[in-house]
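Sequence, structure tokens passed on for absentees:
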Amino acid sequence: MSNKLLAEKDGPIGWLTFNNPARRNALSYAMWDGIAPIMADFADDPDIRVVVLRGVGGAAFCAGADISEFETQRSTPEQVAHYDAAGDRAAASIQGINKPTIAMIEGFCMGGGVGLALDCDLRMANQSARFGIPAAKLGIGYDHPGVARLIDVVGPSFAKAIFFTGGQFSADEALTMGLITKLAADDELEADVRGYAQAIAANAPLSLHCIKTTVDELSQRDRAPDYAACEALVTRCFESEDYAEGRRAFMEKRKPVFRGR
């Protein structure tokens, strides 16, 4: 695994860190290719309840793909397909994990970095965060799944404005658009993210999986929602040990200890 992609387990929180500060944490092909194995490890670890994506250094979350590689690795149709497949695997692994995910956005979040943030369930940013998708300034076309995900979060008009201008916009503007779910002062973001993640991690894993799956199913564009799968997860919650623990803890006026079963 490249040392430009770091994985850490800190109690119930899994941290995936982009470690390429010299290029504002832009992702090389090797970094795109390394995301899915890390997410799979987090998914398989029952002690990990929440996953946070962040960039090292505080100056950037992710500046997107490392454009310096494009001439050698993304200049022919065959290379584009090979390169984009790694990005698709990364996106699918973030979207598909059955645990809540948070993008912790400090500083620059550009292009593919915005896409990675959109792959997460929640996006929390500091006041210095800057956003943009400069595709039109590079002659790049965006595949419809990525465009659809942006539309689902900010709506058609804001999505068009982001793509049409190719320019940068502030954290306050991102909050107004609905691109980010929470805004913090520069020196408070990490503490806010940790507190938020810990609060989520204290809740019942089966309940979190149920609501994440249900929201994702109801948001499907290319097929009808799998209502049966959603109902099965509801039944699983009511039949679980965690539901019994939640009831007992409520009656005993204590915090529940959920085990995900």
User: Anything to note?
Assistant: The chain has two domains: 5-200, 204-251.
